[in-house]
Amino acid sequence: MTLRVGVGGIFHETNTFAAPTGIAAFDVLREQEIVEFSRGARTYLGGLIDEGRRQGFDIVPLIYAEATPSGVIQYHAYVSMRDELVERVAAAELDALLLSLHGAGVAETIDSIEEDICSALRARMGADFTIVATLDLHGNIRQELGDLCQGLFPVRFNPHTDQHERGVEASRCLADIVFGKVQFETAVETIPMLFPPVPTSLPVFEELNRICSDLERDRAVACARVMHGFPYVDVPHMGASVVVVTRKGEADARALARRIAIALWDHRSQIKVNCLDAHGAVDEAMRDERSMIVINEFSDNTGAGTPGDGTHLLSALIASGARACFSHIHDPSTVAQAAAAGVDARIQVELGGHSDPLLGLPIRAEAEVLGLNKGLLYVKSPMGTGEKIDLGQLATLRIGSVDVVVSNGRRQTLDDGWFIKAGIDIAQFPIVALKSSQHFRAWFEARAVRIITADPPGLSPIDVSRLQRQRLQRHLWPIAADANYHDQARQESV
């Protein structure tokens, strides 16, 4: 008998310090649209579907909604998507469900949309209905989510180059449950740490991933992962965690999770990001006479929910006289102004700086319109290879000696496709500047002679203590010097 397995999810990384997110911000895919979106893509959904079919499942695509990271989801927008997902699951006569979730989703009055989604599904489908989910490494999760699902499978790497593999893993776990009658248990161990997005190429995370991989060689351990957490949020359960999924009765998931958590806590001082302010980063790049130097603007990363119209780094580049290209400023009004004027026109712009004074003032300057293009592209980076991205209309402007991509849409720059669509050949520029904290590295690190990180004021800063939080319920390192995981672990063991 072929098993009917649903696939869907609601995927959002919520920066609670940014402007609210409405339903219009979400790409909502239904049924066959999910399959078309995922075909050939190295994404969570692609892995879930590809492996699910290999396992012999009758894959039933339901509804999948995703928005570029942004502010708190408006209540009615979220509930409409959640309720449709639950109703579709109930109506589809499914044997099990595979979900693509993030782990850091927040809606108005709901601190974890992932817990809320799975609670609603449990209430409708019953305690015995099988749910397995993939997660982003930057989720803020706790044991409640582990109790609602038979298995959780976070990505291992940052940049997230292993999304497809985690989807495959989740589908295989589901096959073990439904075909092999295997029972799994999931332990989520929270750690009092709140740190900025860092690459898993740091020595501390390479060692932690080695520990996790060694544990996973035991057939009793389906998953052992460190989740970094998402720091640009104000909810009580924020912070790092460890997820371990084991065959029930064959390994102690909680003990293994605490072993990994202790290793992370004891090496926390190694979690560092070297950075400069905007002018310092530009000066440093100009002193280095090699090409290509990449400057990444960490603190206005739309991949962490920021507006993407910050002007600090771009202003510094223009003022320096450096020959550089920049991707990209989110400013639909300037795109419309450039489109109305046409290619080769010279226009007076007030570029960027419209969303929040923290991100800098608008750049008032004369700009030459170099090009007008459509921002539809497919990711070629190892981070999400094959995923379809639509930045809307693009305007390419030259301000001083800097060629700037201006967009209707918001999405962090992952590879040179963002520049190519705007008519820019990055090989012609000694300095390439972009907005991203880490994911750009999956493509640019092998091609840049050097990467310099700029961290001007913004809504995704390296120093996570810059953002004022009202809802902290525990002391978190490094915000609180007296945070102590060992005390927490001892108290929970009593």
Any overview of this molecule?
By secondary structure, the protein is α/β, with parallel strands linked by helices. Helix content is 29%, strand content 24%. The protein has an eight-stranded mixed beta sheet. The longest helix is centred in the first third of the chain and has 17 residues, at 75-91. The protein is globular and about 70 Å long.
Helix residue percentage: 25-40%
Strand content: 15-25%
**What's the alpha carbon Rg, rounded to whole Å?**
23 Å
Total strand segments: 17
Tell the overall outline.
globular
Quickly give the structural class: alpha/beta
Q: Termini, distance in Å?
A: 47 Å
Tally of separate helices: 14
Low-confidence stretches: none
Strand order of the largest sheet: 12-13-14-15-11-16-10-17
Query: Largest sheet, if any?
Result: 8 strands, mixed
Oligomeric assembly: single chain
Give the rounded overall mean pLDDT. 96
Write the layout of secondary structure elements.
Elements: E1 4-11, E2 27-30, H1 32-38, H2 44-54, E3 58-66, H3 75-91, E4 96-100, H4 113-125, E5 130-135, H5 143-148, E6 151-154, H6 163-178, E7 184-191, H7 203-216, E8 221-227, E9 240-247, H8 253-266, H9 278-287, E10 293-297, H10 312-320, E11 324-330, H11 332-341, E12 346-351, E13 363-378, E14 388-399, E15 402-407, H12 417-421, E16 431-435, H13 441-444, E17 450-454, H14 485-493
Parallel strand pairs: 1-3, 1-4, 4-5, 5-6, 10-16, 10-17, 11-15, 11-16
Antiparallel strand pairs: 2-3, 7-9, 8-9, 12-13, 13-14, 14-15
Helix pairs in contact: 2-6, 3-4, 7-8, 9-10
